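Hey everyone, long-time lurker, first post.

I ran two proteins through the pipeline my lab uses and got sequence/structure pairs for each. Pasting them in order. The first:
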Amino acid sequence: MVPLGMFWGCLTMMNEAVIAFGFVDVLALALLGTLWARLTALERIIERLANASQDIIDPKDLITDAIADIEDGIQETVSGVMEQMRVPTIADHLGGMLAQWGQMKLMKEAENMGLGQATAALEEVLD
């Protein structure tokens, strides 16, 4: 027969093992609970970021909108100029002739002052 002391010793060792495993289980559950809570918090943050990213306008859309605004502005300007255009009158023709005569007179005076040579030298330097 098995002595009672040995049986009692085995039972005590088993109780200690059960207590030790229970302690490890409690630690594991606490760790898993902490991880679960942290993952849930991160999931909420990701959902908020995903919702916020949907509200952000795509840069391509901004460029497209800017180009469309520029095109509209150009079309409005051109149409405004075209609407204000009129058939030239005799006063317009006389004004053009007077302006041309004034330019020719100023060019002759500039040549007499020697500015024509400076212009030619400047053109050579720029070329």
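...and the second, right after it:
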Amino acid sequence: MKTSAKRVALLMGLVLLLNANLVGTPTDVQATANVTVTVDNIMEWAGDFTDITIATHITAKSSAPVGSGTATLYTNGDVHITADITTAAQLKLGSDPNQILLTSYKLTDDGDGTNTTGGTDQGSYTLHGSFLLSSPYAITHVAGDGADIITLWAQAENPSGEVADAGDYSAIQTLTASWGNP
């Protein structure tokens, strides 16, 4: 009987040991979830350009002061920029269409179109009536860089062969971004 009691005690110990492993804390289990989202083509200005105030006054016939403003263009594709070439983009004194300054523009940006989203900076100013008309400003998107800081430069000069009337001149230049490079 001693052997039987030992066997029963040993068997009960094994059962309790097995039960303890079965009833104890379960092992971790995992489940996965696939998450998907689609990003559409995005092209938008963060806001209007900062105001361009040409701080240097025109003080002589040959004066040609410049000023600049910036705006951020968000894009995840290639775009091009065109400009308003109407008289709205020409500096004028009040509402008198005869009191004008020669108004020229150029664009630069913070990218190069190779390593960062951007284009080729314009080196020369172009009169408002032909600014970006035959050659829009091309911006090439580079993966991982979806923002391009555009700088619009403005230059004011006296009309050819005369000096403008004294006063504060103003203009509104509107730039339009469109898909693709021309």
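Reply from user beta_strand_b:
Welcome! Quick read of the second one: Strands lie at 43-45, 66-75, 79-83, 92-93, 102-109, 126-127, 137-139, 147-157, 169-170, 175-179. The first strand starts at residue 43 and ends at 45.
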